[in-house]
Design goal:
By secondary structure, the chain is an alpha/beta fold. The chain is built from five helices and five strands.
C-alpha cells in the first residue's frame, strides 16, 4: 500500500512561491482609443504647414530688412543729388565783384595798403579777367593839379599790382579829379575818405567792355 505524502505547514509557503515563479506576469494593458499613427496623412500635412509658415516668416523678415535698406539707399542718393544740385547752382550763380579802397594822405600818391587787405587783393586780382582802378581826390574845383594827382594815384596802384604779379593787360585805370565823393567833403574826416583809389575786381569780364591796359597818360574818362 502506497503512502501519500503529507504536506506539513512548513512546506506550504515554499510550494506557493515556486508556483508563482513558474507563471509569467501579465503584460500591461494599452488604451487603444488614445493611439495615433505617427505617419498619418494629417500629421504629415500639419508638419508641412508648420514648415511653410516658418519659411514664410523668415522670408517676410528678410524682405522687410531689404526694403528698409533700399529706402535708406534711396534717401542717401536723394541727399547726394541735392548736394550736387546746390553746388552746381552756386557755381552757376554770378558772383559779386570785389571792391577795395586805398586811402592817401593829403597831396600824396604813395601807396600804403595793410598786409591783410593786400594779400586778399593780390590773390583775387591775379585770377580776375578785369581790374578797374578809379583815382579820386578831395578837390573842390576841377583843376589841372587835381586831375594830375588823381591820375598819378591810379597809376601808382596799377604799378603796385603789376609788381605783385597781376597781368598789366587786365588792368584798366581811370581817374576823376573832383566829385564822386565817398563822404562829406566839407569836413576833415570826410576829405580823408575821399582821397582814394577804388579797385574793382571783376569775377567775369563785363559784356562789351574790352580788357586792355591803359597807361597813366592815356587814362580813360571816369565811369559815372
Amino acid at each position: 500500500m502506497n503512502k501519500v505524502p503529507i504536506l506539513t505547514p512548513l512546506l506550504l509557503p515554499w510550494l506557493l512561491l515556486f508556483g508563482s515563479c513558474s507563471s509569467p506576469p501579465k503584460p500591461p494593458t494599452v488604451d487603444e482609443s488614445q493611439k495615433r499613427p505617427v505617419n498619418s496623412a494629417m500629421a504629415v500635412e500639419l508638419q508641412v504647414c508648420k514648415s511653410d509658415l516658418q519659411n514664410t516668416r523668415i522670408l517676410a523678415t528678410e524682405s522687410s530688412r531689404m526694403a528698409e535698406a533700399a529706402i535708406a539707399t534711396v534717401q542717401q542718393l536723394a541727399a547726394r543729388q541735392q548736394a550736387i544740385a546746390t553746388i552746381q547752382a552756386r557755381a552757376a550763380a554770378p558772383q559779386a565783384n570785389s571792391v577795395f579802397t586805398v586811402r592817401f594822405d593829403f597831396g600824396s600818391t604813395r601807396v600804403a595798403i595793410p598786409a591783410e587787405m593786400s594779400a586778399a587783393l593780390i590773390d583775387e586780382a591775379r585770377s580776375a579777367p578785369l581790374v578797374v582802378l578809379r583815382g579820386r581826390t578831395d578837390g573842390s574845383t576841377d583843376s589841372a593839379a587835381e586831375s594830375r594827382i588823381a591820375r598819378e594815384r591810379a597809376a601808382a596802384v596799377r604799378e603796385y599790382l603789376i609788381v605783385a604779379g597781376v597781368d598789366a593787360a587786365r588792368i584798366r585805370a581811370t581817374h576823376q579829379p573832383t566829385g564822386d565823393f565817398a563822404a562829406d567833403n566839407a569836413v576833415t574826416a570826410g576829405r580823408a575818405m575821399n582821397r582814394r583809389v577804388e579797385i574793382e575786381v571783376y569775377r567775369a569780364a563785363p559784356v562789351g567792355v574790352g580788357v586792355a591796359a591803359t597807361t597813366a597818360g592815356a587814362a580813360a574818362p571816369a565811369q559815372p
